[in-house]
Amino acid sequence: MQQLPAFNHPDLLIGCDGASDAGAFRLRDDLIILQSLDFFPPLVDDPFLFGQIAAANSLSDIYAMGGKPQTALNIVAFPDDQLELSILNKILAGGAERVQAAGAVIAGGHSVRDTEIKYGLSVTGTVTPENLITNRSAHVGDCLVLTKSLGTGFVTTAFKKNRCPDDVLETATESMTKLNQGASQAAQTWAASAATDITGFGLAGHATEMATASGVQIVIELDALPILPGVAALISQGHHTRANATNRNGIESSMRIEGDPDPVDMDIVFDPQTSGGLLVSIAASQADAFIASCKQAGAESTAVIGEVRKREAESQDPFLILRG
């Protein structure tokens, strides 16, 4: 894909480079639009719940950059020659509920016939230049804060095998449907240096993207990671996703492991998340206030999980250190 043409425009502030969460385009000196798109097959059987999860996941990219979602377009692949349209109706209703909760509107969409259901949103948001948050500006000395517990990949994998306890699935789906709105607002209030949302590349993958884009080193304390209830048992039963291994392989040359980490924590840090929390780099002096604001907004598992350090550009210093 590196051979595809790059788009250069004075108002294109963020494009495909740097693994950012959304594109950013300046409309006026005081207004930036953010654009993102995401969709995937069902993770749960309930079509309304699937719609909620997919929509929350799509909206998260806008929140990660300090933006306010404004409009969304439905993206649908559906086997209407095999399944009742009432199922699609429930999926779209679930998505609409989350979009409405975000204070945004659905302005339309597009559908195609496919053998597999897929659903998501293309979301447009707005942000002022002073409130724009990227993954490119983590500061040395910052605390790293994570706003949701990890482990949704293990939960959904176990569920597909009919091996996930109902209470574990319920807690995970509650997390996946929760909007990152409150955490995003708190990041703006307490002047976060950088942020990204944790999705398919797992915590380690997205942390490495932030470290690389910011030119810093990120240290994650594995024993500080918030983990969804019941996930450790699912890990011990072997409910890994294929992406767990590919996520690790993808960044292995950019990381170093220190200490003697718990194997469960090592599995968790590479677990692909759906509608995960925000990873926020914030000044140590503001971290406690930021965490309190997140918890007040409903992100109860928000916790400090590491720090940002200086990386010597000419050295072999890794971008990511996983410390157990």
Quick rundown:
The protein is α+β, with helices and mostly antiparallel strands and 324 residues long. It has two domains: 12-130, PurM-like, N-terminal domain (60s Ribosomal Protein L30, Chain: A, 2-Layer Sandwich); 133-323, Phosphoribosyl-aminoimidazole Synthetase, Chain A, domain 2 (Alpha-Beta Complex), CATH 3.90.650.
What does this structure look like?
- With 324 residues, the protein is α+β, with helices and mostly antiparallel strands.
- The chain has two domains: 119 residues, 2-Layer Sandwich (60s Ribosomal Protein L30, Chain: A); 191 residues, PurM-like C-terminal domain (Phosphoribosyl-aminoimidazole Synthetase, Chain A, domain 2, Alpha-Beta Complex), CATH 3.90.650.
- The chain has ten helices and 13 strands.
- The strands form two sheets. It has a seven-stranded mixed β-sheet with strand order 8-11-7-12-9-13-10, sandwiched between helices. It has a six-stranded mixed β-sheet with strand order 1-2-3-6-4-5, covered by helices on one side.
- A hairpin with a 2-residue loop joins β2 and β3.
- α3 packs across α4.
Terminal residue distance:
36 Å
Main β-sheet, in a few words?
Answer: 7 strands, mixed
Gyration radius (Cα, Å) is 19 Å
Return the CATH class of the largest domain: Alpha Beta
Counting structural domains, the number is 2
Major sheet: order of its strands? 8-11-7-12-9-13-10
Provide the CATH architecture of the largest domain: Alpha-Beta Complex
Give the overall shape, derived from the CA principal axes. globular
Proportion of residues in helical segments: 25-40%
CATH topology of the largest domain: Phosphoribosyl-aminoimidazole Synthetase, Chain A, domain 2
Report the sheet-strand fraction.
25-35%
Contiguous runs where pLDDT drops below 50 for at least 5 residues: none
CATH superfamily of the largest domain: PurM-like C-terminal domain
Mean pLDDT: 96
- Our count of helices gives 10
